Amino acid sequence: MQRDKFFKEIENVRHPNETLVKTHCSYCGMQCGMNLRVNTKTNKIIGVEPRYDWPVTVGKMCPKGVTAYQQTNLDDRILKPLIRDDASLKGTKEGFREATWDEAYDLIVKNFQQLQRDYGKDSLSVYSGVSMTNEKCYLTGKFARVGLQTRYIDYNGRFCMASAAGGFMRSFGVDRGSTLPWTDLHETDCLFIAGSNTAECHPTSMFRVWAVQERGGYLIVADPRETPIARRADVHLDLRPGTDLALANGILNLLIQNGHVDKEFVNNHTNGFEETKELVKEFTPEYTSELTGVAPEKIIRAAEIYGKAPNAIVMFARGIEQQVKGVDNVSGYTNMALVTGKIGRPKAGVATFTGQGNGQGGREHGQKADALPGYRKIANPEHVKAVAKVWGIEPEEMPKEGVSAYEMFGLMEQKVIRGLYLLCSNPAVSAPNLNYVREQLKNLDFMVCSDFYLSESAEFADVILPTTTWSEDEGTVTNLEGRCIKINKAQEPLGESKPDWQIHVELCERLGRGKYFSHLKTAKDVGDEFRLASKGGYADYYGITWDKIEKQDGVFWPCKDENDPGTPHMFLDKKFYHPDGKAKICALPYRPPAEEPDEQYPLRLTTGRVVYHYLSGNQTRRINFLRDMCPEPYVEVHPETAEKYNIKHEEFVRLYTRRGEAEYKVKITEAIRKDTVFVPYHFGDDKSINLLTIGALDPMSRMPEFKACAAQIEKLELKKVQ
Amino acid sequence: MKKRLYLELENCIGCRSCLAACTQCGGHEERNRNYVYDVNPLVNRQTMPLMCLHCVNPACARSCPAQAIQIHETGAVLSALVEKCIGCQNCTIACPYGIPKFDTEQNLMYKCDLCIDRTKDGIPPMCASVCPSNTLQWLTDEEIEAKQKQFNLDNGKWVTSMPYLEGETNVRVNLPGILQGVTKLF
Ligand code: SF4
Ligand code: SF4
Ligand code: SF4
Ligand code: SF4
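YS: structure for the whole thing
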């Protein structure tokens, strides 16, 4: 149990006729601890009480967390299966009728079997998400590969963590989002944070970030916008969107030139130094400045601080990862830690801010097109054998590798994929190039969507299955530290809703695949099978029992057996996970974003989040407090740019790219680059900024480039009536 | 040990979790009683919370003709008593910080009660419990004194409560600029 200076013993308030259920927030990777207040007469969740005894967040929550409890009993909940008979209404909210589970299952089975008879097993696809427990994520993979026997399964982590995963795999040979626990953050001497709007996206990290500065440590932030965290940074590297790799190479060059190389570490524990040193030579402060738009002095100062810091942590998020070179950006910034040896010890290391609640666990256990539980690879026959054994199938029966989330839409267009089972995701808002994506959803022969609200994506479904919110089921989640924690059940499922794992089991039974699923009667049954399936993989959860989680305040993977306490700090023995035990320093040639500004589209469009909303906003846009705070998207424009276009604060503009357009209210702020405009992406219908974003993918992670494309603005002369 | 609400304005990230949290405590009827302001919204993202400072000699209570605003033994200046408040709104004008809010439907003033259902038992208020940036903290006088030593501004000033902005307050406020006096590690 880690107890640090922020931890205080505090009693909780207990109201009469209430119990408190210990759990964690439903939203981001911080997984803040919280107590749900449950009325003991109605057995309903009625509020939240801080969880002071959770060591990572000590009671703190952002406004999403404070109001998260309201999701469960909201009027918008879907309480019964819904069927729509008239396919011409796809893409609208109209035409759904309530049905029984039996009727819904029968219809799904009939259509799925028909499609597979006519077009083969792979005509079906599963598109999933990671805002759900490890148990559900694990079973979704098995559902696709054993239940539906299709190769096409992928998940929304492609829009979230895939580049971080790819970069860490390449640099370290293992992908654990943070090499150290969050309770180390405030004790380091320098935080280098790139492409993370931490104060809005992972707010409960902020008390630790500020504490570094209070101690006299340094904060360096790389971001095109002066975000609330950048506002207080010692150095704000205000780079052009999509130029991170140049910045990383430029800083690395200075670290090497200025003698900050840890020679012993580099020689004994890494490969690739000489080659990388040669490559980054070209990235002088002046050349780096030319590419990134950051003043040379700032680059020099940042390198000096990071180089001199006794301990430092390099951190990053979607800002650097959602690019066509996201994987390279991750390895590029990770190089800083490897060259200076600031890794593999407490208070020093590398971390990514995991976006979704279970963005870490969910990507490890087989929802990815190319992966199997325990972070195994489908391309590796040994790995397939191990998992096939747990699943009770022959290795030959294991479907081959599929394609990434965005590429699935391409296969829908080609009619290779004709049926879709969608859960825990809302691609009709969150995918890039939405005009195209929505078209493909509309053209599917048959689509099932499991959700607890009628999301924008559910509007394309033929059948909607009512699933539970996070508080109506139990299971484990792996937070952004790599710490596996326990989500507890606070209320019985509302209406006829069921947890996704149960839906999968019941559906598989009706598809004639019951023998592989019928033994899974509780979330714990699924959890136990999942631990076994992960055993021996990189991400080994075998030793992570629910008891141990309770006793230790969570367990960090890898954790191989009952007696293993888990691994809060990675690489303390300086052993990395590549076969030779060494980390890889990567020589990474710079390349620009897929679409650079030109005369027609002179601005750089970048997207991101606001503190009040989570991902596609399907949950948070329905919560009164959060909706009131941010009811609609807007476009942030620098005053000088605004003047050029003759637009004023709160006037309306048409923002457009080669792919689409939308109208937004203008928010003037000096806290953004002059060549860049920003729009938050949480909104649906004709307000989605993803109508404009580009579907260009990172060649390794298949992550779309949400963070940089070319755009143009036009003032709307007519007064808009909202 | 007596604890106080302590505000370190420099830290605020504008998340408004304090507002969301304020709706959560007993008797708050899901309405928040605090404020967060964008300091200079067209220029930067600095924000700051504004809450009742729980004045030792509160102008709001003094201005109340009906003695509807009671002072708790902990020093917390409570929300108007439903049975006493006559809806005159004197308090909303009297408070130098514009804290009391008015419910026109109920003809009733409501304000921050320092989460009295929590703080009477030494449990931190909701806003200070959740504040992700430690802008709002719940500290002992010793801890506040340590803060005072740690952050020495070059103008010799530290908290607004000494000398006070208006009069002595139970809540302590630390104005932006705390990092000025910090000695860098290297
Ligand atoms: S959204 Fe993230 S930071 Fe906010 S309360 Fe939930 S887990 Fe914590
Ligand atoms: S919760 Fe804290 S950081 Fe957030 S707005 Fe309130 S005072 Fe500022
Ligand atoms: S700050 Fe205003 S409302 Fe609070 S006690 Fe003082 S006068 Fe009354
Ligand atoms: S102390 Fe309680 S009542 Fe006062 S602003 Fe904070 S949460 Fe609201």
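YS: worth flagging: Chain A touches chain B through 52 residues (CB under 8 Å).
IM: good catch. Also Residues 72 and 475 of chain A are 17 Å apart (CA to CA).
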